[in-house]
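This part of the workshop introduces the protein records we will be handling. Getting from the letters to the tokens is the skill we practise here. The record below serves as our worked example for the rest of this section.

…
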Amino acid sequence: RLANAQHAEHGFTRALAGWEEALDARAFQHEQAAAHVITTGAVLLQGVLVGLVAISVFAGLIGIIEEGVLW
């Protein structure tokens, strides 16, 4: 970058601004990727929790029905 900045028409400040923009774009990409991973994990975890609640409710209902049949 420094070698290119010496040959650039506007010099170091323009090259530094370009480098900063590139770093900012890469940081934004990483931030978005992390946000997607965290959101996906949260959705999957909530799905598992809802599934466990549904299983426990239906297991309770099945238990009540079996007791009613045996009674």
